[in-house]
Amino acid sequence: MKFPVLKTYTVAYLIFLYAPIILLPIFAFNDSKVIAFPLQGFTTNWFKTMWADEQLFHALKNSLIVSVSTAILSTSLGIFAARATTGYAFPGKGAAAGLIMLPMVLPEMIMSMSMLVVFLAIGLPLSIFTIILGHVLVCTPFAVAILTSAFQSLDKSLEEAAMDLGEGPVSTFYRVILPLVMPGIVSAMLICFTISLDEFIIAFFLGGTETTLSVYIFGQFRFPAKVPSIMALGTILVCLSILLLTTAEYFRRRGLARTGGKDTGGFL
Amino acid sequence: MIAFRGVQKYYGDYHALRGITATINGGEFFSLLGPSGCGKTTLLRTVAGFEDISGGQVLIDGKDMAGVPPNDRPTNMVFQSYAIFPHLTVEQNVGFGLRKDPRSKDEKTREVDKTLALVGLTGFGKRAAHALSGGQRQRVALARALILKPKVLLLDEPLSALDKKIREQMQMELIKLQREVGITFVLVTHDQEEALVMSDRIAVMFDGEIAQLDEPERLYRKPASQRVANFIGTMNFLPARVLSGSAMVEVDVQGLGRVSLDAGQVSGAAIGGMPVVGFRPETLTILFEGQAPADREAMATVEEVVYYGDMTYYDVKIDGTDQQLRLSMRNVFGRPVLDIGARARVAWAPGALVLFR
Question: What is the ipTM of this complex?
């Protein structure tokens, strides 16, 4: 029998990709301070330790403020950009759209360094506000990508029909366009929230003395005793991420189904 | 009702409308007919207010529509894609334009029900719009526009997405509906049959210009140019020569001989000119054995036979001509269908000839 090369490769690849994530819950429930096999028995103590950590809650609060603000700001900006690029022709449109999307591929390190220089130069103190500014820059391209697809699947004659039936440009937007792209908006917000939540480099560079969850977790790894409770936190975060991404994809697909558009590919 | 005065439209360098001047009367069923890209949809959209014009004027009820946005025009449109709002129910779609209507909610609901009944959708009010068939969407689109009682209803190829049976049924329903509501209908279509069936008057458009504006029958019988003749139905053409003429024009037609034509059949051909004579397939008749001879006859050879059940189409060549002519015969019981190569006596009528320059 022939050795199934491609099949083996695929399985090995998937194990390499996901095994480390599976280790998170395993060690989160393992009754030992050392992260090593063999396992020592089941415990939920690490979750309790984690729960009692006040610094963690402060970081979590920061992270939530940053992520929610980023999601709202990026998506709002994304709506304007997507509406402009799908609905209108204007000089320099290609260049503008390209420049908006660029942060998606620019190294975050370069962006955070240059932003840091600018903030220091203009005397803007580093805080969670500066993190938000950085995150909006990185998340907006993702919001634009999702929303552009949502706006594109809108039939232009729907808008014309609304105007024909007596609505002005503003009420047309509220009565027809917004409800139809709403699934795209929800999906964009969830993606931006997720990206912002686990972003590290910008949060580390622009946060000053304020830490977000990712920066806090990184800091905790210096103390071996803290590692198991980090594993517990990681487990919770994995579950939340999966939940969020699934919800985002659900809304994106529902949006397509409602407008009768074609699936042009999403994130899942 | 609607007047176009030298309407011009450019898209960059492309000249889409080249000086359209026409009047559409109140209560009329008016069609814009032409091949795709002739500017008919663009012209319709200038009435709705979706296209700015580059020159000339569009007037509705004597008022210049320049700068008036679609939402302030006394027109409503049925879109080619129907543009039914997918997030709303049938009821909400139909009532969409009533938001600013000062009437009470109950009255509006009654109005929606009444309009749904008018288009034959009673009981469909609560359905989701995206769960409708093509014909039903069409009706919702109609109801949504008619409920606002526009002065003009604009229809952009409303039947092109429907299959043949439903299309023919909708054609009849639209005619009836138009008589019932008495609103001016302006229909855009590329289907000449549809235009002939439905319209009071038709404007045939080619390359951004109106080639002929006439009633369906005149358009069919007396097309103004060979292009119009070819676009509407089938027409045969034979070369001819003008011999003399004032009230009656003497013409020598290849294969048919000398004919005197009424000046009304002639669009100003000069003596000695070499015009073309056209005639419809049904104006030629094959005379079978035993049939009385006609005033005008010619001998012909059958070159192609297409049998349609109720009709047979023959392509024949009249002696002395080098062109095939299309001829249509109703199949009467007991009459044979001729074979290819058969010789036949063909009767024709001078009155059916149209002279083209």
Answer: 0.83
